[in-house]
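quick one before i forget lol
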Amino acid sequence: MKKIVAMILAAALLLTVVGCGGGTTQTEKTYIVLEDKLQAEEYGIGFRKDDIALGMEVYRILDEMIEDGKAAEISKKWFGENILVKNDKMVEENVTPAADDASLQKVKDAGKLVLGLDASFPPMGFTDENNEIVGFDIDLAEEVCKRMGVTLVKQPINWDAKEMELDGGKIDCIWNGMTITDERVEAMFIPKAYVANAQIVIVPEGSDVKTVAAMEGKKVGLQKGSSALEALQGNAVYEKVGEVIEYEDNVTCYLDLKAGRVDAMVVDEIVGRYLIETE
């Protein structure tokens, strides 16, 4: 009798394990982008405020790449389409290098351009499975450096302290899907936009968060020091969300969304859609 009971219990246990995923593959949740967007924005490359000559040369080469099709080729590699914008409008009008601006010559003399980035910001710049820093912005920068006759040095930085890293001379520019904001234009030289973007909200499919306003009372995740927080703060729902959790990088935030530790994620559209497709 005991043997029969033991066999029944073992069978029940096996069924429980299988039911919990021990012997079958559970269907993973799907994650979607809300139709509501928090705000439209644009990406730019940041240089020290006085490094006008360097910034203008980098953008001159980037415009050249847009004209000859090389930039579009790089864009299609990462996104399947050309996302670059040919923008002749400068962020700041009538900007010319000072007579003693040696920023471009300094980079040429050193033979390298040191690019600061958040190395966990796919697909713009991130560390791949081979521990190499790759990405859309990295490919653009590699080509710019090739045409400039210098070597690209990729320097991961603390994104929350990016302005200090730049002003301290550790890096020559910030080139990593950086949103142009009034505060950043005040702190650094950003010649003009090269990619159009927007701040979006990602939620699990089937979530009761179906609009931005529905984030009321919810836990919302985003990257520390990013424009996602500014976009959220600029919306009326900010005062009503349950909690805003700031992460060191977007990948960790997205993983917490998948784990159910946050209800929604605010992120750049380019990055968010890439995470949904690849993570």
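fyi The mean pLDDT is 89.
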